[in-house]
Amino acid sequence: MDSALACDGGVRDSGVRDGGAHDSGVYLPRTVRTAAKVLVVGHFGVGKTTFVGALSEIRPLRTEETMTQAGAHLDDLAGTAGKTTTTVAMDFGRITINDGLVLYLFGAPGQQRFTRLWLDMTQGALGAVVLADTRRLEQSFDVMGLLEEHDLPYAVAVNHFDDAPAHPEEEIREALDLLPETPLVTCDARDRRSATRALITLVDHLLHTRTITREPV
User: Fold this and answer.
1) Residue 103: CA count within 13 A, CB half-sphere
2) Is 126 helix (H, G, I), strand (E, B) or coil?
3) Do the beta carbons of residue 35 and residue 102 sit within 8 Å?
4) Which of 5, 36, 40, 137 is 20 to 30 A from residue 159's alpha carbon, by CA?
């Protein structure tokens, strides 16, 4: 592991003990030797912060700021009624897979003005979960295009919204122009089990598309 992360013989992350899913403490077991990085991406307001928060075993690091009138002409608020904050850097969470392996989740901001930061975050990542919204499927194209430009495998998870229309899988695949091998699932980013299934879908895809090395990211 990176020596910069070492503390008292263990590894320490930002976060505190919390209830529910966030009850594993801030220290990794001394046995952890391998770290893997996965991105959680998607357009503005699609549920990335919620997804990372549902999965993380530590209190997730969030960089949300209150939206102001000054940004109204930059962010498309269609389909995001009630949203008052936006991620301005990243979301960060952690999942300990076993005694030797930890998975770090990086949620990237969805607005185009953060593209440079977004691209920096792709460095060292194994793959990405792309969250999508059936009310705004066309807004997923830029995100998927960036992943494909950087040869980063991904799985698409259609996030559940109460007022979003339901469509058959084949129609969503056609609308998103997905390759046959690209996984497509539905999920509820608020629910840990549902979010876990989406993440497992990505991992299964990675295992079939590339060899995952045992070197730290």
Assistant:
1) 22
2) coil
3) yes
4) 36
The answer to whether 48 and 87 are in contact (CB under 8 A) is yes
Helix spans in 30-129 (H): 48-55, 115-121
Q: Is the pLDDT of residue 73 over 50?
A: no
| Contact in structure between 46 and 132 (CB atoms under 8 Å) | yes
Q: Where are the beta strands (DSSP E) in 15-119?
A: 27-28, 34-41, 64-66, 85-87, 91-98, 101-107
Q: In what order do the strands lie in the sheet with 10-12?
A: 6-7, 10-12, 27-28
Q: Enumerate the β-bridge partners of residue 6.
A: 11
pLDDT digits (tens, 9 = 90+) for 38-63: 999 999 889 999 999 999 999 888 65
Report the C-alpha dihedral over residues 113, 63, 107, 8, rounded to 10 degrees. Answer: 140
